[in-house]
Amino acid sequence: MQETFTISELGKEFGITTRAIRFYEDKKLLSPVRDGQKRIYTRSDRTRLKLLLRGKRLGWPLDEIRDVLNMYEAGDEGELQQLLYTCRKVEESRQQLEQQKLDIEASLADLATIESRCRARIESLAIDGDENAA
Amino acid sequence: MQETFTISELGKEFGITTRAIRFYEDKKLLSPVRDGQKRIYTRSDRTRLKLLLRGKRLGWPLDEIRDVLNMYEAGDEGELQQLLYTCRKVEESRQQLEQQKLDIEASLADLATIESRCRARIESLAIDGDENAA
DNA sequence: GAGTATATTGACGTTTACGTAAACGTCAAT
DNA sequence: ATTGACGTTTACGTAAACGTCAATATACTC
């Protein structure tokens, strides 16, 4: 794989606009190096962006996503206080995720019910249609 | 359980403001009956609100939540076209949920990694501390 | 050196999801 | 009669997450 990426490459790869990517930088979620004016994204930057978008799919606000992203780095170094803080944050995120898991299971179950009712109703319409046609 | 609820009862139960509940009505996600001016919420309204909030925890925009809520009723009646449309919508939602499931599993795995690194680091700090103390 | 493609930084606009405040009605209790 | 708790509508404010220009720079290429 490439060592570095341009902003438009990343935009194309992940299906987002360059404006969005710059916005994330503004919000301190990314910090690419510069070649003169131009932004240069490393593989690590690309990974951060990938994780960022995963957070978005889970409906998390950018602030929280940034906190989680920072955990990836905070795990390896830093003061004791920082490490303990990270641990607490990890626990918070885990609980949120568990809640979301529950919500997803419940939603999937509901959808199954809806779909079967729908199909049954479609079936009965089809039969009525046959009778009228006959 | 009660047959009906006031707006503040629901607000208290679900930990949201009455302003929010009225806003959801404005956006056609709820449609309580009136007693004069006052809104009266049935158990069915309460269920809709519950489902609504579940959708919110999954990060869905209100528009989508409304569509899903309407599926609950669209499943039992309506034209063939409407039923087929609902089926497609159900499929869409299911796919979104499956994606979110994947994202959650990945996130949980990452969190586990972060936490263990964190704990290891905390351990090593503790040992250093002991040595210095000794 | 004119054109084309890609990049940049502002600045302003937009949508979503409410918060906040004003100004008022209703009813029970003091 | 008024206080307080609850309800209402109307209207404006706001934070988040970008989109949409416009003006400008850099680089290549014909």
Polypeptide structure, described:
The structure is a homodimer of 134-residue chains. With 134 residues, the first copy, chain A, is mostly helical. The first copy, chain A, folds into two domains: 1-60, Multidrug-efflux Transporter Regulator, Chain: A, Domain 2 (Orthogonal Bundle), CATH 1.10.1660; 75-134. In chain A, 74% of the residues lie in helices and 7% in strands. Chain A has five helices and three strands; from the N terminus they run E-H-H-E-E-H-H-H. In chain A, a hairpin with a 2-residue loop joins strand 2 (33-35) and strand 3. Chain A is elongated, with a radius of gyration of 23 Å. The model of chain A has no long low-confidence stretch (mean pLDDT 92). Chain A binds chain B through residues 51, 54-55, 57-60, 71-72, 74-78, 80, 83-84, 86-87, 90, 93-94, 97, 99-101, 103-104, 106-108, 110-111, 113-115, 117-119, 121-122, 125, and chain B through 51, 54-55, 57-60, 71-72, 74-78, 80, 83-84, 86-87, 90, 93-94, 97, 99-101, 103-104, 106-108, 110-111, 113-115, 117-119, 121-122, 125. Chain A binds a DNA duplex (30 and 30 nucleotides) through helix 2.
